[in-house]
UniProtKB/TrEMBL annotation:
A GO-annotated cellular component: cytoplasm
Record-linked PROSITE patterns: CYT_DCMP_DEAMINASES_1, CYT_DCMP_DEAMINASES_2
SUPFAM superfamilies documented for this protein: Cytidine deaminase-like (SSF53927)
Any Pfam family hit: dCMP_cyt_deam_1
Tree of life domain: Bacteria
Protein name: Deaminase
Positions of Zn(2+) binding: H90, C116, C119
Active-site positions on this chain: E92 (proton donor)
InterPro entries xref list: APOBEC/CMP_deaminase_Zn-bd (IPR016192), CMP_dCMP_dom (IPR002125), Cytidine_deaminase-like (IPR016193), dCMP_deaminase (IPR016473), dCMP_deaminase-rel (IPR015517), Deoxycytidylate_deaminase_dom (IPR035105)
Keywords: Hydrolase, Metal-binding, Zinc
Limits of the CMP/dCMP-type deaminase domain: 9-155
Cofactor(s) this protein requires: Zn(2+)
Gene Ontology terms for molecular function: dCMP deaminase activity; zinc ion binding
Amino acid sequence: MISPETRKDWDTYFMDIAYMVSTRSRCSRRHVGAVLVQGKKLLGTAYNGAPSGVPDCLEAGCMIAEDYEVTVVEGQEKVIKKQRCIRTIHAEQNLLLFTDRVDREGSSVYVTDEPCWTCANMLANSGITEIVYHRPYPKDTGKVTAMMQQKGIVFRRLDTYSPPPETVVMIQD
């Protein structure tokens, strides 16, 4: 029997589920899981991967695209190189594809990784009111955080969270 002292809080519970979902990913660079929650009710799950019926990264390799972005850090311009796999649909995108708008209204999304700019844009327009993530994605943090503040979407990191050991996969950036 689990005592009240050892019972997981809701953030940990839902983030554990997001990490378990991420184990379905076959991307060799990053395993990401996302869950949609309304109150305490789980409404959907998704992970990153190639479209259904299409060879994935483990079968066909990653399709890497490189982008460069100029940002200002402490008053100095800095060029940031971004590499992303364009074979993979992100977990947040799949979550939006496979859930209904009515379910997303006022809901929270728990995602293993901080959303990239594209996913943040999509989530900002999806009806959700909160995004909870664990691993940071510093390349887009500033502009994503600013947009979430503008939209009034709660955007928070679980920085003291530890994922279940069986779900941890080494990440290549």
